[in-house]
Amino acid sequence: MDQSFFRCKKVLVIDDCAPVRATVKGMLQQMGFEAIHLAKDSGEAMQKCIEMPFDFILCDFNLGDCKDGYQLFEALKKQQLLAPLCCFIVISAEAQSQIVHGVIELQPDDYLLKPFTAPALEERICRAIRHRIELRKVFFRLFEHDYAEASRECDLVIRTKPDYALQAMRLKGELLLKLGQYDKAEVFYQKVLQQKAYSWARLGHALSCFYLERWEDTELELVDLTQFGDTKVEALDWLSRLYVRHGRYQLAFETLSKAATLSPKNISRQKTLSNLCVMLGHTDVAARIAGKIVQGARHSIDDTADNYLNHARALVDQAKTSNLLEKAVILQNAAKLLDALHKRFNVDALKRETVILRSRMNSCRGAIKEGRELIQQIQDLPLDDLSIDSCMDAAKAYFELGDLYSSQLCIDRLKTMLYDDDFLTETQRIMLQLEQNKHESLKQQIKQINTEATDAYRMGQFGRAVMLFCETFDYMPTNPVIALNLLQAMSKSAGVTGETINYARNAARVLRQNQLEKSEQERFEKYVITLKKTQPGLAQVQL
After folding, report:
1. pLDDT tens digit string along 21-78?
2. Among residues 455, 466, 510, which one has the least CA distance to residue 491?
3. How far apart, in Å, are the Cα atoms of 111 and each of 57, 59, 69, 108, 164?
4. pTM score, two decimals?
5. Contacts for 486 with CB less than 8 Å, ≥ 6 apart
6. Cis check: omega of the bond before 382, within 30 degrees of 0
7. Which among 252, 398, 416, 508 counts the fewest CB atoms within 10 Å?
8. CA 273, CA 267: separation in Å to the nearest integer?
9. 395-406, pLDDT tens digit by residue?
10. Reduced to 3 states, what is the DSSP secondary structure of residue 220?
11. What's the whole-number mean pLDDT along residues 280-297?
12. DSSP one-letter code for 473
C-alpha cells in the first residue's frame, strides 16, 4: 500500500511513555500518515475515541496505574467505539503468558512485541487492513449484529477470494454456532478439518459436539486442545462447562482455575469460578475470589458496585458457616465494605441492595427482629430492576428471615432473568436451583414436623407438641401460624423451662409484629392470658 492510502487515515497511538509515542509517530509519518493522534493513557484515549472514529489504533499493553491495554480494548468493544474496519494492534514489551493469553481472548488484529522496526510495523498494519478491507461486508454486518447476513457474506468471500478464504471460514464457523445452527456447524467444521487440522476448527467442532450433547467426543477433543497456546484457555473454559453439565463441580473448579490463572483479567470467568465455589460449599474460597474481582475489575468496564456488594455477600455466606469469633470478624469486614460504598458509588441508588445485605448480616448474628425490620423498608419496592446477583441475595435474605413467600417471588423473578447461553449464567441457574431445593426441602421438613406436632397435640401429648413446634419455629422464626400453634401447645403444657420461655417470648413478638386476623388476635390474647395464669415461669415475662 502506498503513502496516499494512509494519508487520509486517522491513527491513534496510546502509550504512557512519551519517547515511545514520538518514535511510533515518526514511523507512521514515514508510512504516509498525517492524521496522527497521541494519548498517554486510557482515559485520554477513550475520550478521543468518543470524539471521532479511528482507522487504526496502536495501543501499549501497560498504561501506568489506570486502564491497561486489555481493559481499554475490552471497553471500546463493549461500547462499540471501534469502527467496523478499525484495526486494533496491541504493542508491548511483555511476552508473559498471562498477557499473551489475555490478548488472544480479545482477538485484536495483531500483537507486536517491542522493540520493533518501521518495516515490521508497516507489515503488520498492511496485513491487518487488507484483511479488514477484503472482509469488510462481513465486519459491517457483524457491527450491526446481523449474524445471518454476515454468514452469507462469509460464503461469498470463501467462493471468490481464496487468499482470504481461511479467515472467512473461521468467522463462518463462529457465526453458525452463534446462530444455534449446530448440525450445520458440525458439518462445516468437518469439511474444514479434511483440508487441515486447524486448532480453531477442532475447537469449533468440539463446541458443535457440546451443543449436540455428544459428550465423549467433546471431552476428548477439548482435553487435547488444552495443549495448544491459541486454544488452551477457551478449551479449559468449555471443558469446565462440560464437567458442570455432568455434576462434576470439583473437577470443573480445578479446570476453570487453570484458565483463570492463564488469563486473570476475564471478570466473567472469575465470577463463574466464585459461583463454582459456592456450589461446592467452599464459601471461604468464594469470598477470596470475590475480593480479587473487586481489585481486578478496577479501571475496567466491569468496575461496578455489584462487585463490592458481591464481595460483602460472599463474606456473609462465609460467616454463616464459621464459628462465633470468626463470624464476628467476617461480618465486620462485610460491614466495612458497605460503609465504604459511598466513596465511589451513589448509595441512594443502592438502598435496596444494602438493606438486603444488612438484613442478612443481622440474620446471621441471630438478630431476626432487626433483620426483619430492616427488610420491611423495601418490602413494597419492585424487583424488576434488581440485578441477578441482587435478586439472588434478596431470595436468600427472605429465606433466612423465614419469609418463604417473598423468597419464592425472588426465585420466580430470577427464572425469567437467567436466559443467556454462557457459562456464568449456567452456574447462576444451578445456584438458583439449589436455593429452590432448599425451599422444597424445608417446606417438606416443616410440614412433617408440623403434622407430628399437631398429632401430638390432638393426643394430649402437649409436652411433645411444644418440643416439635419449637423445632418448626427454629426453621421459620417469623411465621405467625407456627408461632400461634406454639403458644397454643404451651398453654396446655404442664410446665415451661428457661428455653421454652425464650420461645414463648419470640413467638409473641412475631405475632405482635404481624397483622393478624380478628380470630387469630383473639386466640393470641387468650393464650397469653392462659400462659401467665398457668405457668409461673411466664408470669413476669413480657409476652
Report:
1. 999 999 999 999 999 999 999 999 999 999 999 999 999 988 876 778 888 998 999 9
2. 466
3. 12, 10, 11, 7, 20
4. 0.82
5. 466, 469, 470, 472, 473, 503, 504, 507
6. no
7. 416
8. 10
9. 999 988 878 888
10. helix
11. 95
12. H
